[in-house]
Protein backbone atom coordinates (compact mmCIF):
# COMPACT_ATOMS: atom_id res chain seq x y z
CA UNK A 1 0.00 0.00 0.00
CA UNK A 2 3.07 2.25 0.22
CA UNK A 3 2.72 3.25 -3.43
CA UNK A 4 -0.49 5.10 -2.56
CA UNK A 5 -0.40 8.88 -2.59
CA UNK A 6 -1.20 10.74 0.63
CA UNK A 7 -4.20 13.05 0.33
CA UNK A 8 -4.56 16.47 1.95
CA UNK A 9 -7.45 18.88 2.41
CA UNK A 10 -6.33 22.43 1.59
CA UNK A 11 -9.54 24.43 1.35
CA UNK A 12 -13.10 24.51 2.67
CA UNK A 13 -16.00 26.73 1.68
CA UNK A 14 -19.73 26.97 2.24
CA UNK A 15 -22.62 29.38 2.12
CA UNK A 16 -24.89 30.24 5.04
CA UNK A 17 -27.46 27.45 5.15
CA UNK A 18 -31.14 28.39 5.33
CA UNK A 19 -34.35 28.96 3.43
CA UNK A 20 -32.79 30.44 0.28
CA UNK A 21 -35.62 31.03 -2.19
CA UNK A 22 -33.66 33.85 -3.81
CA UNK A 23 -30.75 31.55 -4.77
CA UNK A 24 -30.73 28.86 -7.47
CA UNK A 25 -28.63 25.72 -7.11
CA UNK A 26 -26.17 27.37 -9.55
CA UNK A 27 -25.96 30.48 -7.34
CA UNK A 28 -25.27 28.37 -4.27
CA UNK A 29 -22.62 26.21 -5.95
CA UNK A 30 -20.75 29.17 -7.44
CA UNK A 31 -20.66 30.94 -4.07
CA UNK A 32 -19.46 27.83 -2.21
CA UNK A 33 -16.74 27.23 -4.85
CA UNK A 34 -15.53 30.84 -4.63
CA UNK A 35 -15.48 30.69 -0.82
CA UNK A 36 -13.47 27.47 -1.02
CA UNK A 37 -10.88 28.89 -3.47
CA UNK A 38 -10.51 31.97 -1.25
CA UNK A 39 -9.89 29.71 1.77
CA UNK A 40 -6.72 28.15 0.28
CA UNK A 41 -3.74 29.63 2.18
CA UNK A 42 -1.54 30.31 -0.86
CA UNK A 43 -4.46 30.76 -3.24
CA UNK A 44 -5.94 28.57 -5.96
CA UNK A 45 -7.62 29.32 -9.27
CA UNK A 46 -10.22 27.24 -11.13
CA UNK A 47 -7.52 26.34 -13.69
CA UNK A 48 -5.68 24.37 -10.97
CA UNK A 49 -8.57 21.89 -10.62
CA UNK A 50 -8.04 18.56 -12.43
CA UNK A 51 -11.29 16.76 -11.64
CA UNK A 52 -14.48 17.30 -9.66
CA UNK A 53 -17.08 15.27 -7.80
CA UNK A 54 -20.58 16.68 -7.35
CA UNK A 55 -22.79 15.41 -4.54
CA UNK A 56 -26.53 15.95 -4.87
CA UNK A 57 -29.62 13.79 -4.69
CA UNK A 58 -31.16 16.41 -7.01
CA UNK A 59 -34.32 16.59 -4.96
CA UNK A 60 -35.54 19.62 -6.97
CA UNK A 61 -34.77 18.06 -10.38
CA UNK A 62 -32.27 20.58 -11.68
CA UNK A 63 -28.79 19.08 -11.67
CA UNK A 64 -28.95 15.47 -12.99
CA UNK A 65 -25.25 14.98 -13.97
CA UNK A 66 -21.74 16.32 -13.49
CA UNK A 67 -22.79 19.18 -15.76
CA UNK A 68 -24.81 20.52 -12.86
CA UNK A 69 -21.48 21.49 -11.30
CA UNK A 70 -19.64 22.44 -14.52
CA UNK A 71 -22.12 25.09 -15.55
CA UNK A 72 -22.02 27.29 -12.44
CA UNK A 73 -18.25 26.82 -11.85
CA UNK A 74 -16.90 26.86 -15.43
CA UNK A 75 -15.11 23.55 -14.84
CA UNK A 76 -15.17 21.93 -18.30
CA UNK A 77 -12.77 19.70 -20.28
CA UNK A 78 -12.13 17.48 -17.24
CA UNK A 79 -13.79 14.54 -15.46
CA UNK A 80 -16.81 15.74 -13.48
CA UNK A 81 -18.90 13.03 -11.82
CA UNK A 82 -22.19 13.31 -10.01
CA UNK A 83 -22.45 11.15 -6.88
CA UNK A 84 -25.72 10.12 -5.20
CA UNK A 85 -25.79 7.87 -2.15
CA UNK A 86 -28.88 8.85 -0.14
CA UNK A 87 -28.00 11.01 2.87
CA UNK A 88 -24.38 9.85 2.57
CA UNK A 89 -24.15 11.66 -0.78
CA UNK A 90 -21.76 14.46 0.26
CA UNK A 91 -19.42 12.19 2.18
CA UNK A 92 -19.46 9.65 -0.66
CA UNK A 93 -18.50 12.41 -3.13
CA UNK A 94 -15.61 13.38 -0.84
CA UNK A 95 -14.54 9.74 -0.56
CA UNK A 96 -14.61 9.32 -4.35
CA UNK A 97 -12.35 12.35 -4.83
CA UNK A 98 -9.97 11.09 -2.12
CA UNK A 99 -9.75 7.65 -3.73
CA UNK A 100 -8.86 9.16 -7.10
CA UNK A 101 -6.11 11.31 -5.58
CA UNK A 102 -4.87 8.41 -3.44
CA UNK A 103 -4.60 6.23 -6.55
CA UNK A 104 -2.45 8.85 -8.26
CA UNK A 105 -5.02 9.72 -10.92
CA UNK A 106 -5.74 13.29 -9.81
CA UNK A 107 -3.59 16.01 -8.22
CA UNK A 108 -6.24 18.61 -7.40
CA UNK A 109 -9.85 17.54 -6.87
CA UNK A 110 -12.90 19.64 -6.09
CA UNK A 111 -15.74 18.17 -4.05
CA UNK A 112 -18.95 20.18 -4.16
CA UNK A 113 -22.35 19.36 -2.70
CA UNK A 114 -25.64 21.21 -2.98
CA UNK A 115 -29.36 20.73 -2.45
CA UNK A 116 -32.45 22.88 -3.01
CA UNK A 117 -34.60 21.28 -0.31
CA UNK A 118 -37.19 24.05 -0.05
CA UNK A 119 -38.14 24.09 -3.73
CA UNK A 120 -39.73 20.64 -3.60
CA UNK A 121 -40.95 19.35 -0.26
CA UNK A 122 -42.83 16.52 -1.97
CA UNK A 123 -39.53 14.88 -2.87
CA UNK A 124 -39.02 13.93 0.75
CA UNK A 125 -42.33 12.15 0.92
CA UNK A 126 -41.78 10.34 -2.36
CA UNK A 127 -38.32 9.39 -1.18
CA UNK A 128 -39.85 7.62 1.76
CA UNK A 129 -41.83 5.34 -0.55
CA UNK A 130 -45.23 5.87 0.96
CA UNK A 131 -46.98 4.03 -1.86
CA UNK A 132 -45.09 0.75 -1.78
CA UNK A 133 -46.77 -2.39 -0.49
CA UNK A 134 -44.95 -4.25 2.34
CA UNK A 135 -41.52 -2.89 1.66
CA UNK A 136 -41.44 0.66 2.91
CA UNK A 137 -45.20 0.73 3.41
CA UNK A 138 -46.06 4.15 4.70
CA UNK A 139 -42.63 4.80 6.19
CA UNK A 140 -41.52 8.43 6.56
CA UNK A 141 -38.04 9.55 7.61
CA UNK A 142 -39.05 10.21 11.25
CA UNK A 143 -40.61 6.73 11.33
CA UNK A 144 -37.51 4.96 10.03
CA UNK A 145 -35.35 6.56 12.72
CA UNK A 146 -38.08 6.63 15.38
CA UNK A 147 -38.36 2.83 15.20
CA UNK A 148 -34.81 2.70 16.65
CA UNK A 149 -35.79 5.08 19.44
CA UNK A 150 -38.77 3.01 20.62
CA UNK A 151 -36.68 -0.16 20.63
CA UNK A 152 -33.64 1.50 22.26
CA UNK A 153 -35.77 2.80 25.12
CA UNK A 154 -37.36 -0.65 25.60
CA UNK A 155 -34.14 -2.65 25.37
CA UNK A 156 -31.66 -0.39 27.17
CA UNK A 157 -33.85 1.83 29.34
CA UNK A 158 -32.79 4.94 27.42
CA UNK A 159 -34.98 7.85 28.53
CA UNK A 160 -36.88 10.48 26.56
CA UNK A 161 -34.84 13.12 28.37
CA UNK A 162 -31.51 11.59 27.31
CA UNK A 163 -32.63 11.63 23.67
CA UNK A 164 -33.76 15.26 24.05
CA UNK A 165 -30.34 16.28 25.40
CA UNK A 166 -28.87 15.71 21.91
CA UNK A 167 -31.12 18.47 20.55
CA UNK A 168 -30.26 20.80 23.44
CA UNK A 169 -26.52 20.26 22.86
CA UNK A 170 -26.65 20.74 19.10
CA UNK A 171 -28.83 23.85 19.26
CA UNK A 172 -26.49 25.33 21.85
CA UNK A 173 -23.57 24.78 19.42
CA UNK A 174 -25.59 25.94 16.41
CA UNK A 175 -26.44 29.23 18.11
CA UNK A 176 -22.70 30.00 18.00
CA UNK A 177 -22.11 28.74 14.46
CA UNK A 178 -22.32 31.46 11.80
CA UNK A 179 -23.54 29.26 8.88
CA UNK A 180 -26.35 27.50 10.82
CA UNK A 181 -29.97 27.64 9.61
CA UNK A 182 -31.36 27.73 13.17
CA UNK A 183 -29.52 29.76 15.79
CA UNK A 184 -31.75 29.42 18.85
CA UNK A 185 -31.21 27.51 22.06
CA UNK A 186 -33.69 25.21 23.82
CA UNK A 187 -33.88 23.08 26.96
CA UNK A 188 -35.00 19.50 27.57
CA UNK A 189 -38.57 20.61 28.39
CA UNK A 190 -38.81 22.50 25.09
CA UNK A 191 -37.91 19.32 23.20
CA UNK A 192 -40.17 17.00 25.20
CA UNK A 193 -43.08 19.48 24.98
CA UNK A 194 -42.70 20.29 21.26
CA UNK A 195 -45.40 18.89 18.92
CA UNK A 196 -45.26 15.17 18.25
CA UNK A 197 -44.20 14.35 14.68
CA UNK A 198 -43.90 10.57 14.94
CA UNK A 199 -43.98 8.99 18.39
CA UNK A 200 -41.51 8.93 20.09
CA UNK A 201 -39.98 11.88 18.17
CA UNK A 202 -41.13 15.50 18.45
CA UNK A 203 -40.50 18.56 16.30
CA UNK A 204 -37.26 19.49 18.12
CA UNK A 205 -35.95 15.96 17.57
CA UNK A 206 -36.00 16.59 13.79
CA UNK A 207 -33.61 18.51 11.55
CA UNK A 208 -35.11 21.34 9.48
CA UNK A 209 -35.63 21.44 5.70
CA UNK A 210 -32.71 23.56 4.51
CA UNK A 211 -31.08 24.81 1.30
CA UNK A 212 -27.30 24.90 1.10
CA UNK A 213 -24.01 24.21 -0.67
CA UNK A 214 -20.45 23.44 0.40
CA UNK A 215 -17.14 22.75 -1.33
CA UNK A 216 -13.82 21.17 -0.38
CA UNK A 217 -10.47 20.98 -2.18
CA UNK A 218 -8.32 17.87 -1.81
CA UNK A 219 -4.84 17.52 -3.31
CA UNK A 220 -2.02 14.98 -3.58
CA UNK A 221 1.14 15.08 -1.46
CA UNK A 222 3.02 15.94 -4.68
CA UNK A 223 1.43 19.38 -5.03
CA UNK A 224 0.32 20.21 -1.48
CA UNK A 225 3.20 22.68 -0.89
CA UNK A 226 1.91 24.89 -3.72
CA UNK A 227 -1.28 25.53 -1.77
CA UNK A 228 -0.54 25.49 1.97
CA UNK A 229 2.05 24.87 4.66
CA UNK A 230 -0.69 23.72 7.05
CA UNK A 231 -2.57 20.86 5.34
CA UNK A 232 -4.96 18.44 7.02
CA UNK A 233 -4.52 14.82 5.91
CA UNK A 234 -7.14 12.24 5.04
CA UNK A 235 -6.30 9.34 7.36
CA UNK A 236 -9.07 6.91 6.47
CA UNK A 237 -12.41 6.36 4.78
CA UNK A 238 -15.09 3.69 4.84
CA UNK A 239 -18.44 3.05 3.20
CA UNK A 240 -20.95 0.27 3.72
CA UNK A 241 -24.58 -0.70 3.15
CA UNK A 242 -26.92 -2.94 5.12
CA UNK A 243 -30.64 -3.65 5.56
CA UNK A 244 -32.79 -4.45 8.57
CA UNK A 245 -34.52 -7.07 6.41
CA UNK A 246 -31.40 -9.23 6.78
CA UNK A 247 -32.57 -10.07 10.29
CA UNK A 248 -29.67 -8.71 12.41
CA UNK A 249 -31.24 -7.56 15.69
CA UNK A 250 -28.61 -4.82 16.02
CA UNK A 251 -30.34 -3.10 13.11
CA UNK A 252 -33.41 -2.51 15.33
CA UNK A 253 -31.38 -0.37 17.78
CA UNK A 254 -28.76 1.15 15.45
CA UNK A 255 -27.14 0.88 12.06
CA UNK A 256 -24.70 -1.95 11.29
CA UNK A 257 -23.70 -0.04 8.12
CA UNK A 258 -22.14 2.63 10.36
CA UNK A 259 -20.19 0.03 12.34
CA UNK A 260 -18.92 -1.48 9.09
CA UNK A 261 -17.94 1.86 7.52
CA UNK A 262 -16.26 3.04 10.73
CA UNK A 263 -14.36 -0.25 11.00
CA UNK A 264 -12.95 0.27 7.50
CA UNK A 265 -11.99 3.88 8.23
CA UNK A 266 -10.33 3.11 11.60
CA UNK A 267 -8.37 0.27 10.03
CA UNK A 268 -7.14 2.43 7.15
CA UNK A 269 -6.15 5.19 9.61
CA UNK A 270 -4.52 2.69 11.97
CA UNK A 271 -6.46 4.05 14.95
CA UNK A 272 -9.44 3.17 17.15
CA UNK A 273 -12.52 5.11 18.22
CA UNK A 274 -10.61 6.21 21.35
CA UNK A 275 -8.25 8.28 19.17
CA UNK A 276 -11.05 10.51 17.78
CA UNK A 277 -10.95 13.98 19.36
CA UNK A 278 -13.86 15.66 17.57
CA UNK A 279 -16.68 14.41 15.33
CA UNK A 280 -19.39 15.65 12.99
CA UNK A 281 -22.03 12.90 12.87
CA UNK A 282 -25.40 12.42 11.21
CA UNK A 283 -28.07 13.80 13.55
CA UNK A 284 -31.01 14.00 11.13
CA UNK A 285 -32.93 13.08 14.30
CA UNK A 286 -31.76 13.12 17.91
CA UNK A 287 -31.95 9.32 18.16
CA UNK A 288 -29.69 8.99 15.11
CA UNK A 289 -26.83 10.72 16.94
CA UNK A 290 -27.45 8.70 20.12
CA UNK A 291 -27.19 5.31 18.36
CA UNK A 292 -24.27 6.59 16.26
CA UNK A 293 -22.19 7.10 19.45
CA UNK A 294 -22.53 3.35 19.87
CA UNK A 295 -22.13 2.36 16.21
CA UNK A 296 -18.91 4.41 15.94
CA UNK A 297 -17.54 2.82 19.14
CA UNK A 298 -17.50 6.04 21.21
CA UNK A 299 -19.33 3.99 23.88
CA UNK A 300 -20.66 0.45 24.32
CA UNK A 301 -23.90 -0.70 22.65
CA UNK A 302 -26.80 0.51 24.77
CA UNK A 303 -24.77 3.23 26.56
CA UNK A 304 -25.63 6.14 24.23
CA UNK A 305 -27.90 7.70 26.87
CA UNK A 306 -25.20 7.50 29.54
CA UNK A 307 -22.69 8.94 27.04
CA UNK A 308 -24.70 12.13 26.53
CA UNK A 309 -25.39 12.30 30.30
CA UNK A 310 -21.61 12.17 30.94
CA UNK A 311 -21.08 15.40 28.99
CA UNK A 312 -18.33 13.87 26.86
CA UNK A 313 -19.88 14.97 23.52
CA UNK A 314 -20.50 18.57 24.68
CA UNK A 315 -18.41 21.35 23.15
CA UNK A 316 -16.25 21.55 26.29
CA UNK A 317 -16.26 17.75 26.76
CA UNK A 318 -13.61 15.15 26.06
CA UNK A 319 -14.91 14.36 22.54
CA UNK A 320 -17.08 17.18 21.16
CA UNK A 321 -19.71 15.85 18.73
CA UNK A 322 -21.35 18.20 16.23
CA UNK A 323 -19.67 21.45 17.26
CA UNK A 324 -21.28 23.04 14.17
CA UNK A 325 -24.75 22.36 15.58
CA UNK A 326 -25.15 19.27 13.44
CA UNK A 327 -27.99 18.72 11.03
CA UNK A 328 -30.44 19.63 13.82
CA UNK A 329 -29.33 23.27 13.94
CA UNK A 330 -27.18 23.83 10.85
CA UNK A 331 -29.63 22.08 8.52
CA UNK A 332 -29.49 19.12 6.15
CA UNK A 333 -29.24 20.10 2.47
CA UNK A 334 -28.53 16.48 1.59
CA UNK A 335 -25.80 16.75 -1.06
CA UNK A 336 -24.02 19.50 0.89
CA UNK A 337 -24.34 17.95 4.35
CA UNK A 338 -21.37 15.57 4.29
CA UNK A 339 -19.15 18.13 2.53
CA UNK A 340 -19.93 20.76 5.18
CA UNK A 341 -19.14 18.21 7.91
CA UNK A 342 -15.73 17.49 6.36
CA UNK A 343 -15.13 21.25 6.22
CA UNK A 344 -15.93 21.63 9.90
CA UNK A 345 -13.50 18.85 10.86
CA UNK A 346 -10.84 20.52 8.66
CA UNK A 347 -11.34 23.81 10.49
CA UNK A 348 -11.41 22.13 13.90
CA UNK A 349 -8.06 20.41 13.22
CA UNK A 350 -6.55 23.70 11.96
CA UNK A 351 -7.79 25.43 15.11
CA UNK A 352 -9.88 27.82 13.00
CA UNK A 353 -13.37 26.90 14.19
CA UNK A 354 -13.93 30.17 16.04
CA UNK A 355 -16.72 30.20 18.62
CA UNK A 356 -17.23 26.44 18.32
CA UNK A 357 -13.54 25.45 18.42
CA UNK A 358 -12.95 22.26 20.46
CA UNK A 359 -10.48 23.17 23.21
CA UNK A 360 -8.87 19.69 23.36
CA UNK A 361 -6.26 20.47 20.68
CA UNK A 362 -7.75 17.84 18.31
CA UNK A 363 -5.43 15.53 16.33
CA UNK A 364 -8.04 13.27 14.72
CA UNK A 365 -11.54 14.24 13.56
CA UNK A 366 -14.29 12.02 12.19
CA UNK A 367 -17.16 12.76 9.79
CA UNK A 368 -20.17 10.44 9.47
CA UNK A 369 -23.36 10.14 7.42
CA UNK A 370 -26.12 7.55 7.49
CA UNK A 371 -28.75 7.46 4.77
CA UNK A 372 -31.81 5.36 4.10
CA UNK A 373 -32.85 3.89 0.81
CA UNK A 374 -34.50 1.03 -1.05
CA UNK A 375 -38.02 1.79 0.15
CA UNK A 376 -36.78 2.63 3.63
CA UNK A 377 -35.47 -0.87 4.31
CA UNK A 378 -31.75 -0.25 3.77
CA UNK A 379 -29.12 2.07 5.14
CA UNK A 380 -25.86 3.41 3.70
CA UNK A 381 -23.09 4.90 5.80
CA UNK A 382 -19.90 6.75 4.92
CA UNK A 383 -17.19 7.67 7.44
CA UNK A 384 -14.14 9.84 6.75
CA UNK A 385 -11.29 10.52 9.20
CA UNK A 386 -8.99 13.54 8.97
CA UNK A 387 -5.70 13.97 10.82
CA UNK A 388 -3.30 16.78 11.61
CA UNK A 389 -0.33 14.44 11.17
CA UNK A 390 0.44 12.88 7.81
CA UNK B 1 -56.05 -4.40 -13.91
CA UNK B 2 -52.96 -4.15 -11.70
CA UNK B 3 -50.06 -1.99 -12.72
CA UNK B 4 -47.03 -4.24 -13.36
CA UNK B 5 -45.28 -3.82 -9.96
CA UNK B 6 -48.46 -4.83 -8.16
CA UNK B 7 -49.05 -7.77 -10.49
CA UNK B 8 -45.59 -9.09 -9.68
CA UNK B 9 -46.15 -8.91 -5.91
CA UNK B 10 -49.81 -10.00 -5.91
CA UNK B 11 -49.21 -13.49 -4.48
CA UNK B 12 -47.20 -11.96 -1.66
CA UNK B 13 -49.73 -9.24 -0.98
CA UNK B 14 -52.81 -11.40 -1.13
CA UNK B 15 -51.63 -14.85 0.07
CA UNK B 16 -48.47 -13.99 2.10
CA UNK B 17 -46.39 -16.15 -0.22
CA UNK B 18 -42.69 -16.02 0.68
CA UNK B 19 -39.43 -17.79 -0.21
CA UNK B 20 -36.92 -19.50 2.12
CA UNK B 21 -33.20 -19.70 1.27
CA UNK B 22 -32.15 -23.36 1.09
CA UNK B 23 -28.59 -22.38 2.08
CA UNK B 24 -29.16 -20.33 5.25
CA UNK B 25 -32.89 -20.36 6.04
CA UNK B 26 -33.43 -16.62 5.55
CA UNK B 27 -36.95 -15.76 4.42
CA UNK B 28 -37.52 -13.30 1.58
CA UNK B 29 -40.78 -11.39 1.54
CA UNK B 30 -42.33 -10.03 -0.62
CA UNK B 31 -39.69 -10.36 -3.35
CA UNK B 32 -39.03 -13.58 -5.22
CA UNK B 33 -35.25 -13.48 -4.92
CA UNK B 34 -32.31 -15.02 -6.73
CA UNK B 35 -29.24 -14.11 -4.67
CA UNK B 36 -29.78 -14.33 -0.90
CA UNK B 37 -29.76 -11.01 0.92
CA UNK B 38 -28.25 -12.54 4.06
CA UNK B 39 -25.75 -15.22 2.97
CA UNK B 40 -25.06 -13.81 -0.49
CA UNK B 41 -25.41 -17.22 -2.16
CA UNK B 42 -26.93 -17.68 -5.63
CA UNK B 43 -29.36 -19.90 -3.77
CA UNK B 44 -32.20 -22.25 -4.50
CA UNK B 45 -35.45 -21.25 -2.78
CA UNK B 46 -38.40 -23.07 -1.31
CA UNK B 47 -41.82 -21.48 -1.55
CA UNK B 48 -43.43 -20.95 1.83
CA UNK B 49 -46.35 -19.07 3.38
CA UNK B 50 -46.28 -16.64 6.26
CA UNK B 51 -48.70 -16.89 9.15
CA UNK B 52 -50.79 -13.72 9.42
CA UNK B 53 -50.13 -13.38 13.18
CA UNK B 54 -46.74 -11.78 13.85
CA UNK B 55 -44.79 -10.13 16.67
CA UNK B 56 -44.06 -6.41 17.05
CA UNK B 57 -40.29 -5.80 17.30
CA UNK B 58 -40.54 -2.00 17.33
CA UNK B 59 -43.11 0.63 16.41
CA UNK B 60 -43.80 4.32 15.94
CA UNK B 61 -46.99 6.38 15.64
CA UNK B 62 -46.93 8.75 12.68
CA UNK B 63 -48.83 11.99 13.30
CA UNK B 64 -47.85 14.15 10.29
CA UNK B 65 -48.62 12.69 6.87
CA UNK B 66 -50.13 13.85 3.57
CA UNK B 67 -53.88 14.22 3.89
CA UNK B 68 -54.72 10.97 2.06
CA UNK B 69 -53.38 9.08 5.10
CA UNK B 70 -55.33 8.55 8.32
CA UNK B 71 -53.52 9.81 11.38
CA UNK B 72 -52.41 8.83 13.92
CA UNK B 73 -50.92 6.00 11.85
CA UNK B 74 -49.06 3.33 13.85
CA UNK B 75 -46.32 1.48 11.99
CA UNK B 76 -44.29 -1.50 13.22
CA UNK B 77 -41.34 -3.67 12.33
CA UNK B 78 -42.91 -7.13 12.52
CA UNK B 79 -41.52 -10.64 12.62
CA UNK B 80 -43.98 -12.87 10.75
CA UNK B 81 -43.52 -16.62 11.27
CA UNK B 82 -43.87 -19.19 8.52
CA UNK B 83 -47.00 -21.39 8.51
CA UNK B 84 -44.72 -24.41 9.00
CA UNK B 85 -41.31 -24.30 10.71
CA UNK B 86 -38.30 -22.05 10.10
CA UNK B 87 -37.32 -18.42 10.67
CA UNK B 88 -39.76 -15.52 10.55
CA UNK B 89 -39.65 -12.78 7.89
CA UNK B 90 -38.92 -9.25 9.14
CA UNK B 91 -41.23 -6.74 7.48
CA UNK B 92 -42.91 -3.38 7.94
CA UNK B 93 -46.51 -3.46 9.03
CA UNK B 94 -49.08 -0.68 9.02
CA UNK B 95 -51.70 -0.85 11.76
CA UNK B 96 -55.40 -0.19 11.40
CA UNK B 97 -58.38 0.01 13.77
CA UNK B 98 -56.02 -0.01 16.76
CA UNK B 99 -55.58 2.54 19.55
CA UNK B 100 -51.91 3.54 19.42
CA UNK B 101 -51.80 3.31 23.21
CA UNK B 102 -52.53 -0.43 22.92
CA UNK B 103 -49.38 -1.20 20.90
CA UNK B 104 -46.25 -2.46 22.64
CA UNK B 105 -43.02 -4.21 21.70
CA UNK B 106 -43.39 -8.00 21.96
CA UNK B 107 -47.16 -8.09 21.44
CA UNK B 108 -48.74 -10.25 18.78
CA UNK B 109 -50.64 -8.60 15.96
CA UNK B 110 -53.03 -10.10 13.44
CA UNK B 111 -52.75 -9.41 9.73
CA UNK B 112 -56.14 -8.54 8.24
CA UNK B 113 -56.87 -8.10 4.53
CA UNK B 114 -57.61 -4.46 3.75
CA UNK B 115 -57.59 -1.95 0.92
CA UNK B 116 -54.16 -0.29 1.29
CA UNK B 117 -54.40 2.45 -1.34
CA UNK B 118 -55.58 3.15 -4.87
CA UNK B 119 -53.57 3.26 -8.07
CA UNK B 120 -55.29 5.26 -10.80
CA UNK B 121 -58.60 4.74 -9.01
CA UNK B 122 -58.14 0.97 -8.64
CA UNK B 123 -57.88 -0.41 -5.11
CA UNK B 124 -54.72 -2.33 -4.09
CA UNK B 125 -55.37 -4.89 -1.33
CA UNK B 126 -52.91 -6.25 1.19
CA UNK B 127 -52.53 -6.91 4.90
CA UNK B 128 -52.65 -4.42 7.74
CA UNK B 129 -52.31 -5.27 11.41
CA UNK B 130 -54.64 -5.07 14.38
CA UNK B 131 -54.45 -6.11 17.99
CA UNK B 132 -55.99 -9.64 17.83
CA UNK B 133 -59.64 -10.10 18.87
CA UNK B 134 -60.08 -11.42 22.41
CA UNK B 135 -56.74 -9.89 23.30
CA UNK B 136 -57.96 -6.46 24.45
CA UNK B 137 -56.13 -4.80 27.28
ZN1 LIG C 1 -29.19 -17.43 2.39
From TrEMBL, chain B:
Superkingdom of source: Archaea
Domain annotation ChsH2 C-terminal OB-fold: ranges: 49-114
SUPFAM superfamilies membership: Nucleic acid-binding proteins
Source species of the chain: Halosegnis rubeus
Name under which the protein is recorded: ChsH2 C-terminal OB-fold domain-containing protein
InterPro entries xrefs: ChsH2_C, NA-bd_OB-fold, Thioester_dehydratase-like
